[in-house]
Amino acid sequence: MNTVSQFYDSLAPDYDLMTDFNSRFQKEQPIFRQLLRQYNIHSALDAGCGTGFHSLLLASLGVDVTAVDVSKEMVRTLQQRAGELQVTISSMQASFDELPGIVQKKFDAVFCLGNTLAHLLTEDSLMQTFKNFKLLLHENGTLIFQTLNYHRIVQTEERIQNVKERDNKIFIRFYDFLETTVAFNILTLERKKGGILHRLQTTELRPLSHGEALEMLQTAGFRDINVYGSLELTPFDIESSHDLIVCAR
């Protein structure tokens, strides 16, 4: 399997195409505008920023954004996008355990979206990450994170997560269920003259449960913890919600 940085470095050229960057940008602005109002957010750390979708969206809404990702190619793409959209974002390549040593400011919010936390493969690394996030927040700052609802996925053994066709490419995201982790696979099929090319990229994820997340957040010092089923802050249903969203102070 690829390391996380290798996986996303190789995925960076296709990432925005696969995740519908352009169509989502306008659609999700009202959702984030509401989050900014509700939690009084003027500055934010985007932890695991990828190609910068959420960083750019937040910056377009007037937030002072610092973006961090372990993949140098993702960070490079973010800065290219920022130039195109004429917004300023401070960005750096770093892992979560490096954050306290390299980020020299505190924020109104830490966003960790897009199932990023599932890449942390041990309880210790997840706990340390929550503690690091807490250190980087102002006194009344808010951690907002998103993962998939792995209770539903593991219970149903839902292997195929997503299939999208964009331009001349088909992206198939699917899981292989291992003993305590899952292999996350992206199969890319590309139509070329004379045939179809394929590329398979794989990395390992550790499913994060609702109960484990709440217990660790409390241990890390968070007290006001709210759980939702989407970024629109709809109620969380452990059996049916697609996502697990946690807003914690």
The arrangement of helices and strands along the chain is HHEHEHEHEHEHEEEEHEE
CATH class of the largest domain: Alpha Beta
Based on CA atoms alone, the radius of gyration comes out at 18 Å
Give the overall pLDDT as a whole number. 95
Coarse morphology: globular
Q: If strands are numbered along the chain, what order do they take across the biggest sheet?
A: 3-2-1-4-5-11-10
The CATH superfamily of the largest domain is Vaccinia Virus protein VP39
CATH architecture of the largest domain: 3-Layer(aba) Sandwich
Category from helices, strands and their pairing: alpha/beta
Tally of separate helices: 8
Helix content: 25-40%
Number of strands: 11
Low-pLDDT segments, ≥5 res: none
Strand content: 25-35%
The name CATH uses for the topology of the largest domain is: Rossmann fold
Number of domains: 2
Task: Please outline the major beta sheet.
Answer: 7 strands, mixed
First-residue to last-residue Cα separation: 35 Å
Give a brief rundown of this model:
The chain has 249 residues and is α/β, with parallel strands linked by helices.
